[in-house]
Amino acid sequence: MHMLQLQWQKTIFLRIICGFWWVFDFVRVLIVKMFGCECFYWNRLTEFDEFNSSEPELFSLPSPLPQWPQGKGFATGKINLGELEVTKITKFESIWSCTVLHGKGKAKSKGISFYKPVEIPDGFHCLGYYCQPNDHPLRGHVLVARDATASKPEVGDINNSLVDLPALSKPINYMLIWSNEPQHGHCGYFWLPNPPVGYKAMGIVVSETPEEPELDEVRCVREDLTESCETCDVILTTDSNHSNYEFQVWKTRPCERGMFCSGVSVGTFFCGTYSNPEDQLDVACLKNLDSTLHAMPNLDQIHALIKHYGPTVFFHPDEDCMPSSVQWFFKNGAILKQDGNSKWEPIDYRGSNLPSGGTNDGAFWIDLPEDEEAGNYLKKGNLESAEFYVHVKPALGGTLTDIVMWIFCPLNGPATLKIGLMNIAMTKIGQHVSDWEHYTLRVSNFTGELWQAYFSEHSGGGWVEAHDLEYIEGNKPIVYSSKHGHASYPHPGMYLQGSSKLGIGVRNDTARSKYFVDSSTKYQIVAAEYLGDGVVTEPCWLQYMREWGPTIVYDSRSELDKIISLLPMFVRFSVENIVDLFPTELYGEEGPTGPKEKDNWEGDERW
To answer: Which sequence ranges are marked TM in the entry (predicted)?
Structure first.
């Protein structure tokens, strides 16, 4: 025992010596965090260089789109929102571009371009301009709209209730929000439409001259046909060194998002010299008043979409906690336990004896069989039986379709900690029975194009644009599942859950291997509520709202303390101070709930 401890100490010491440079860098970063000495100029934008900006290239999916099966309004190019009909514009005229310069050395960064939508069909009207960074391929869009109802009198001719007003109206005038200083040459002017009473502006207009834009340039939308929106991703930030006020540009999105929400994103941007998250924006989103959601795909179209876009999911070469089908898990010994009852019950392979409905009250949970051999067999999973469980739902007012693909793993394996250059594999910490993970394909209902993919990463995740995905065949993306944790990522590599700046946290390793599941063929549609009753039959187990595993409390602090005690004194104190950077999952795990208990079942993904 004493020799083993000496060998372990020697190994740790050699790793520390090899990574000696990391210690100094770690201390430097720690001092910055403790005393607030960080230099913020690295991320501050100080100057424009309008003339050297290269505009982005166009992007299209690797393969042409197929002819989708016939249906109602899906992929017809236009969507009726009730009183408004909208279509998507993807062709633009560049109005103003700039390259942003960073920091003391004025190093060039990404360029920013502002666009006017062009080739607008007759009868449709622009609602606002488009903006994006130049380091992304050009594949954005804005919506243009026309009044879908019979002609109504002009705004100035009536004094009736709001619903008697036409759906669209010209602005009264424009307010200049911001312009860059004239000495920079090529100027950009940003204008907010001033709507008539009872109307809302949808976006910003950009010009190269100080003259106010023509009133016919955009339309405002009647207030009852709009939803409130909020800013999300920051596209551009300038500081006071560049102008008298800080100027920011953001993407916008509806405040309320989910499969029962009606807010429709227009694709425009918002900008200003001041932002308070509590303030209501001067622009709005559209609202879908058509409860039929006629632009959503029918069942045949859903199958065609999955066949065309279904990703291949690769598991790590060293993965030993494989996925399985839910039926395989039940057939091979999973049991149901009840609080206060020492007896357990085997689960029917369909899950028909699981308690249905209700809430997660802690009264029941699923567990591995008490026989150790049977339990170990279940832990390994069964890749051959694995399949994806698909939930299809409307997004952003039915202008997009979310195809949510869930996968089940009988076991979430133990974590591997990273502390600088050291990697320490845990034996139990991070391990829990049952693991539900998912990714989401977001498809445009105007065309059927894949627009984005969402990758779930433990308690969070993020959207990835179609141009930043890897494709394995045609338009089928690749999803990389992390070793043991089964989090989803768009590219292979190591992703750190913790502090990437300090190099401390839980490793999420992904790589291509011979272990994979093709979701375009191995799937089962389990829910699509918008299709109506009886179209999709939900499996019994989907109605089980309790936990799919027992609650586990780890003595992780004790195990971490043992690791810290083996470190040399000159790094021990620093490591002790950053233990709190580890994810909370290291200290205990409640049993995971099933897909229907997740926030994103009815709501939007977390982003």
So the answer is: 12-31
Whether residue 447 is predicted with pLDDT greater than 50 in this model: the reply is yes
Give the span between the Cα atoms of 342 and 115, in whole angstroms: 67
The 10s digit of each residue's pLDDT in 17-63 is: 344 444 444 444 443 444 343 332 223 333 444 444 566 788 999 99
Strands across the sheet with 189-194, in order? 173-179, 189-194, 205-207
Tell me the two tokens of residue 262: 């009606």
Predicted structure pTM score? 0.87
Is the separation of the CB atoms in 326 and 354 below 8 Å? no
Question: Mean pLDDT score of the chain, rounded to an integer?
Answer: 84
Q: Does the pLDDT at position 84 exceed 50?
A: yes
Residue reference for tokens 């020492």: 342
Q: Rounded CA gap, 596 and 602, in Å? A: 8
pLDDT of residue 337: 96
The Cα 86–Cα 124 span in angstroms is 8
What single DSSP character describes residue 521? T
Give the span between the Cα atoms of 113 and 530, in whole angstroms. 38
Considering 36-45, 179-188, 326-335, 574-583, the range whose residues carry the highest mean pLDDT is 326-335
Q: Which is higher by pLDDT, 193 or 101?
A: 193
How big is the CA angle at 536 (ends 534 and 537), to the nearest 5 degrees? 80
Pairing mode, strands 335-338 and 341-346: antiparallel
Q: Are 482 and 510 in contact (CB under 8 A)?
A: yes
Return the bridge partners of 390, or none.
Answer: 405, 525
Q: Are 100 and 135 in contact (CB under 8 A)?
A: no
On the question of pLDDT at 215 being above 50, the answer is yes
Cβ atoms of residues 327 and 385 within 8 Å: yes
**Tell me, what's the pLDDT at 560?**
65
- pLDDT (tens digit, 9 = 90+) per residue, 252-270? 999 999 999 999 999 999 9
Q: Are 598 and 514 in contact (CB under 8 A)?
A: no
The sign of the dihedral angle between the CA atoms of 364, 370, 376, 378 is negative
- Between the alpha carbon of residue 27 and those of residues 13, 40, 250, 423, 566, the distances in Å are 18, 19, 35, 19, 19
552 touches 588 (CB < 8 A): yes
- Surface-to-core class of residue 373, CB atoms within 10 Å of its CB (0-12 exposed, 13-18 middle, 19+ buried): exposed
Pairing relation of β-strands 78-80 and 84-89?
Answer: antiparallel
